[in-house]
């Protein structure tokens, strides 16, 4: 979870945000890279709150805005990785998500072994 991150105001950046688009100096807490565990009740609150929240071009920040407006608290999970976690069959059994796989064959091999072991 990202907290205390600031919008980038340099116009040449891919992540540039003008003061008109977002007039605050810090982002709300948000989850980068999109892996969530959400209860049904929280998901309903997110859905209904999204009806009254202006769309924003960065999806992870938008979800942060919606969850803050809905009064939900974001929690970090040690089982979600924003990078490709080094693999071993036993150590991977509690992984919910691991991002950063640039080789589709490697990703398929990890998933296939985890599935064979009954862990995916």
Explain what this protein looks like in three dimensions.
- The structure is a single chain.
- The chain has helices at residues 40-50, 59-69, 104-116, and strands spanning 80-81, 97-98.
- It is mainly alpha-helical.
- It has two domains: 1-74, no CATH class; 80-116, no CATH class.
- Helix 1 crosses helix 2 (59-69).
- The longest helix has 13 residues, at 104-116.
- The protein starts with 39 loop residues before the first helix and ends with a helix.
Task: Please specify the SSE layout and strand pairing.
Blueprint: H1 40-50, H2 59-69, E1 80-81, E2 97-98, H3 104-116
Parallel strand pairs: 1-2
Helix pairs in contact: 1-2
């Amino acid at each position: 979870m990202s907290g205390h991150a600031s919008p980038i105001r340099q116009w040449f950046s891919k992540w540039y945000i003008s003061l008109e688009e977002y007039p605050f100096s810090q982002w709300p807490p948000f989850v980068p890279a999109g892996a969530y565990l959400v209860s049904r009740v929280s998901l309903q609150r997110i859905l209904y709150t999204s009806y009254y929240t202006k769309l924003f071009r960065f999806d992870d920040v938008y979800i942060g805005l919606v969850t803050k407006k809905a009064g939900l608290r974001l929690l970090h999970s040690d089982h979600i990785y924003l990078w490709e976690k080094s693999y071993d069959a036993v150590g991977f059994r509690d992984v919910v998500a691991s991002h950063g796989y640039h080789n589709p064959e490697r990703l398929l091999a990890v998933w296939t072994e985890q599935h064979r072991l009954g862990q995916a």
